[in-house]
Write a structure and sequence with these properties.
Layout lengths: L6 H4 L3 H6 L1 E6 L5 E8 L5 H16 L12 H8 L8 H17 E5 L11 H10 L1 H12 L8
Antiparallel strand pairs: 1-2, 2-3
Length: 152
């Protein structure tokens, strides 16, 4: 008796990235906060444009993969060596693209029982991610972690 090969359990599907994966946010002290954010994967429709812009940025400055440079340091150094004096504009451009990608990735969030906070909107995501850069880092890392979107 032969079995059908199940691609959905062996590979991350676009459908699972569209539905999103939930992750728990950790405090800067490394403690679980009880807040959960549901994020779309990098191949989801909502992130295709923003993720492509980030990839183009990294390719432009000779960085092989965004994962090699999660904080954008290599990209800033590469941009600084492009001939013109580095002004910081490239760093601002990278940050703006990362913010746009994080906001596009954010599907929803929920607070621990008994707590409330800002509703999940693009505007509120920008405010929270701008005020709390380590939250932005967690969102960007989790949104690009394809293992989160694997069906178990």
């Amino acid at each position: 008796m032969t079995k059908n090969f199940d691609f959905n359990t062996n590979f991350v599907s676009v459908d699972s990235q569209e539905k999103g994966a939930e992750f728990e946010v950790y405090s800067d002290a490394g403690e679980p906060t009880g807040m959960f954010i549901t994020l779309a994967g990098p191949d989801s429709t909502r992130r295709k444009k923003t993720h492509a812009r980030l990839k183009d940025f990294y390719l432009k400055f000779g960085i092989s993969a965004q994962k090699d440079d999660p904080k954008g340091r290599k990209a800033r150094r590469a941009a600084a060596a492009q001939g013109s004096k580095y002004t910081g504009d490239t760093s601002n451009e990278l940050h703006a693209m990362q913010m746009e990608d994080a906001v596009a990735a954010t599907i929803s969030w929920r607070y621990p029982d008994g707590f409330e906070g800002p509703k999940c909107t693009a505007e509120n995501a920008i405010v929270l991610y701008s005020k709390h850069p380590t939250l932005l880092e967690q969102v960007l890392d989790a949104a690009d972690d394809l293992n989160r979107f694997m069906k178990s």
